[in-house]
Amino acid sequence: MKWLKSEIKQRQHLLPAFFYGLRKYVLVILVCLFMAGMLTTFSTDTVRVAAQKKNSCAECHSKLEGRLGQPSKLFENDIHNSRGLSCNDCHGGDPTKDDKAAAKSPYSGYLGTPGPTEIASFCGKCHSDASVMKKFNPSLRVDQVQEYYTSVHGTRLRAGDKKVATCISCHGNHGIRKSSDTQSTVYPKNVAETCAKCHSDGDYMKEYGIPHDQYEKYKASVHFNALNEKNDLSAPTCNDCHGNHGAVPPGITSVANVCGQCHSRQADLFRKSVHKDVFDRMQIGECLRCHNNHAILTPTDDMLGIEKGSVCITCHSAGKGFQAAKEMRSSLAAIKRRVSEAEELLEQAERAGMEVSHPKFELEDAIDSLTQARVSVHSVSVEELNKATAPGLAIANKSFEAGLAAFGELNFRRKGLAVSLVFIFFLAALIFLKIKQIERPAKEAGNDGSPDS
Amino acid sequence: MDTNGPEKPSRRRFLDILLGTSAFATLGAILYPVFRFMVPPQIVEAQQNSVVAAKTSELANNTGKIFKFGSKPGLIVRTDTGEVKAFSASCTHLDCIVQYQPEAKNILCACHNGIYDLAGKNVSGPPPRPLDEYAVNVKGDDIIVTKT
Amino acid sequence: MKTEALKLWFDKRLGISSAVELAEKKEIPLHRHSIWYYFGGMTLFLFVVQVVTGILLLLYYRPSAENAFESVQFIVTEVEFGWLIRSVHSWSANLMILTLFIHMFSTYFMSAFRAPREITWVTGVFLFVISICFGFSGYLLPWNELAFFATKVGTDIAGVLPFVGDFMLRFLRGGDEVTGATLTRFFGFHVAILPATTTVVLGIHLLLVQMHGISVPPGQEKESVKKMKFFPNFFLRDLIGWIVAVGILAALAAIFPWELGVKADPFASAPAGIKPEWYFLFMFQTLKYLPAKILVFEGEVIGILAFMLGGLIWLLVPFINRRTDSKKAKVVFNVFGGFVLMFIVVMTIIGFLD
């Protein structure tokens, strides 16, 4: 340090000369300083931060309490948000303006909160425009709004009813998720609950004169069970039968067509049967007459026949229909009885020690036949039913025979055993006698095998 | 010398004859099942591992046929290119018997509208898994299907 | 005359007259414990039954995981009298091991292992071990659930041994797990290796018995004890026993047929309460009672080593017991034998009741 100080002191007198020497480079130095300043101020980070979409809507509304603060919070999970869309893409307005009046001025195209009658067109602005949707999800349909106006909701809305469902009633308004998102209000498992929001509300639905117990009934059904308990996403919920945007109850003469989308065999048989014309004429509602529309329960064999609990006797008390019901039921009962007899016999044979796994296995095909028979009930033709039960009955009979054969074999074995045991013990006795014979006189003469005799 | 002294020769002989016959009979009763066992039974093989599903002459292009594989149903399909494929015909949803649809060129289960493609893969409807595929061998006019 | 000429013809070529002479001389001592002399021959007879029925089963059985169960099912359902041959084979195996136990313990308590019969005893213990191996390997062959898991547990126990455990496990299983490879290997043991070994060891055992004759227990005086000729007297009695055994086997096969079970599924979980065959039960039950850790060692390992040590002592009994006339030695050996027998019996019963 001391050395440095002395060095500087030695050269101090040279300082002014140093700067004097630099005078030609003053301009260069000034330009460099200027550029450095500019670059610092306008470096990429700063530029980016400045260019990031300013969203004055979110900035203000996220600070608000209650209803006005909700949208920006919900929008974080919205699918439109994740696609880069923002408040102004739907509501209009100028998100770059901090001033409320400027942001929401009519010149900025601000639309405000759409009323119920405006919502469909509000959403349809994009969702009905194929050239717009192509940019985001080319496979999405663009006719939802069109369909909507064919629905009960849409037609009533046009007639002035503001209570009906619009897009946002089912899809939500700011936290809209894809229908494949499990948290979406329109995810298959959640659809029924979404519809029930209005349709199960007795007070809300009072003026319409339609029942409001559909959701309760649906929850008791096999379809609900399949969808929610067994996680079979192909099981139907409200929209599968009623349509989703064009929601309307299926016509009373087209119920079979709707159910037949999945239950094609039954629907086919029904349509070919004598019931179709009769039901349609009497406006009975096809499938739902016997199976109900919402509370569709697991069908049982008791539904068929002429005993208490059957659906046939609600119309038929005598005549051809009555006879047919009786015969069909007894035909089903016959095959069930035969199958259980065969099962019982084979179980017994197995317990007795016989090997009957093959016939038991084949008997399962008879169960298959029983299932087919239950489907063919929908033809309400005794002939059709018997065609279905015939193979199963044959299998059940064959299995029963196999059971009898097993017992026959068992008896054969037991008899065979008895006979051979007789032989065996007879022989043993004879050998015993032989021993006695060899040794008896020898005992007297000393010949019992001892070497001394 | 008769060491079995006072015993009457005839009685001794009787016992010997009886003994011999009885021994012979018992031996026979033991050997009979042994020999019957060794004779091959009618059904010679333990398991139906392979079966002749159809004749090539019977199975036209773009048709399907149900056949019995042991006690389970099988489906044999001849595509329109002539390739033969075989699957288990038990639908993986609820065991109904599937069928081949020539117009749609796929496999349908009519119970709940389940659809499988020609690789046996479940493409639509309730079926949770593809159909089991079997190996196909064509020997002359016979189409032989074997469980893999 | 014809028979005489025939005998002479064979004798000139095969030299059987000397064998016939020896056979004529063979005697059985008669005393109040003579009843036990039947059990050696009975075990031999049941072994012959096993060989015959086993060879018959070989005509139809298939030793692969895919086919084994089905082939046994085939034998029992399709082949004529298949049910009989199969059930006799399974029942006779158990009966044979029972008579073997009786034979082994009766010779022990009658001190038949005394000089000069030490090697007879040793070969006998080897035969006992071989028979257990026959039972263990044969049990797996039907490839049903019970058999599969019994084999898994059994080979697991073998794997617990120190040093050689891992090797033993892989050697027995033909791999790390019980698979089709295990089945094929066990089949090889059961129909080739063990029978070949038995032929040699059994041959020596029987030869030695003929050479030394039937031993007389120490209580009975060797000179004054009554004797019975083996041919035809004792042999005919033996024969009655064997014929009755055939009857018993036939009855068991017809009235209590051996079950087929459920086909083994390596991916299924073990059914509750698996137990090995009754002749392993006493060891299995003992291992269950041992605590998980004894000092620093695993309880199971100590248990198995203890059993092996016990087996070794059992094998070497003739060499430990030198002073055969000493009353004290006799008491000690009887007590030891009695303890072993009681232990096995009690543990087996508890194993059944568990």
- The string of secondary-structure elements of chain A, in order, is HHHHHHHHHHHHHHHHHHHHHHHHHH
Mean pLDDT score of chain C, rounded? Answer: 90
Shape of chain A: flat
Secondary structure: helix percent of chain A: 55-70%
Number of strands of chain C: 4
Percent of residues in helices of chain C comes to over 70%
- How far the N terminus sits from the C terminus of chain A, by CA atoms, comes to 138 Å
* Unreliable runs of chain A: 46-51
Mean pLDDT of chain A: 85
* CATH class call of the domain at 33-217 and 225-267 in chain C: Mainly Alpha
Tally the helices of chain A: what do you get?
26
The N- and C-terminal alpha carbons of chain C lie at a distance of 67 Å
CATH architecture annotation of the domain at 33-217 and 225-267 in chain C: Up-down Bundle
Strand order of the largest sheet of chain C: 1-2
- What is the general shape of chain C? globular
Largest sheet of chain A: none
Descriptive notes:
The complex is a heterotrimer of chains A (453), B (148) and C (354). Helices cover 62% and strands 0% of the residues of chain A. Among the domains of chain A are: 257-297, no CATH class; 319-441. In chain A, helix 24 (319-351) packs antiparallel against helix 25 (357-376), helix 24 (319-351) runs parallel beside helix 26 (382-445) and helix 25 runs antiparallel to helix 26. Chain A has 26 helices and no strands. By secondary structure, chain B is an alpha+beta fold. In chain B, 20% of the residues lie in helices and 34% in strands. Chain B has one helix and ten strands. Chain B has one helix spanning 9-38; strands spanning 50-55, 63-69, 72-78, 84-88, 99-101, 106-109, 114-116, 122-124, 133-139, 142-146. In chain B, the strands form two sheets. Chain B has a six-stranded antiparallel β-sheet with strand order 1-10-9-4-3-2, with no helix packed on it. In chain B, a hairpin with a 4-residue loop joins strand 6 (106-109) and strand 7 (114-116). The radius of gyration of chain B is 31 Å and the shape is elongated. The termini of chain B are far apart. Chain C has 354 residues and is mainly alpha-helical. Chain C has a domain at 33-217 and 225-267: Cytochrome Bc1 Complex, Chain C, CATH 1.20.810. Chain C is built from 14 helices and four strands. The termini of chain C are far apart. The model of chain C has no long low-confidence stretch (mean pLDDT 90). At the B-C interface, helix 1 of B face helix 4 and helix 5 of C.
